[in-house]
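Final report, Chapter 2: Outcomes

The project's central promise was a pipeline that accepts a single protein chain and returns its three-dimensional structure in a standardized token representation, suitable for archiving and comparison. That pipeline is now operational. To close this chapter, we reproduce one record exactly as it appears in the project archive, with the input sequence first and the structure output second.
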Amino acid sequence: TDKIKRDDLYHYLDSISPAVILYESDTKSVQRMLNRTDFFRQLMSTFKKGNKVESFVSLKYIEYHPECEIFSYEWEERDSYHRKHDILSKSSEMLNAVIRLHREHVLTSDQSATVEEFLALNTEISNIGMNANIHDINNATTDSILRNRQLYVYDHIPKIVKERKELKAYQDFVPRHMEYWDIRNRAMAQNIINQIKRNPNKKIVVLNGYYHRYYLIDELKKHEEDLNFSVK
């Protein structure tokens, strides 16, 4: 968020003192970052000195703590899946099309109520995003809002699309959209689990966009007892 600067993120990371950092990117991207060959990302870091930049913070941390290791944990097929199915732009178009029908008073009262609830959640999370510090976005309250918001994005709103003939152009895309969030987050969670197994009894920090946080925590907590770790 705008309030969280790179120094904030670094000092927070330093206070935890992880043995392993898991970085939200694929293996090749993390290797480019670690080898200092990800020139575009490093250039962007230079121009964003006041803001949080996870790559800058991670590289600074291992510079002072060379015993720490950084690994990827992103779903490796994410980018190819995005390109193949045009997930990001089509999902945005579809959601905006539903909102447009709502504003044109075309939807049923139940459908409009669903859209209103979704828009209210968007406003709530947007307000958090503009003003939040690290502790504001790393807590159960924000997790709950985002869990609910994503349920609308990937379930409730797509169901409206299925019901509206005006949105026929998106109906073949709906199943792909509805499964995407689960596929990606479950893959990310499994990759984290794999790293926990490879690094028993080590402190691990997982860096991610906070929309993922609730989902990853929900998945990880299923394995705390059998793998003898705890999510903090």
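Archive annotation: Strands lie at 20-23, 69-72, 204-206.
This record, like all others produced under the grant, will remain available to the consortium after the project formally closes.
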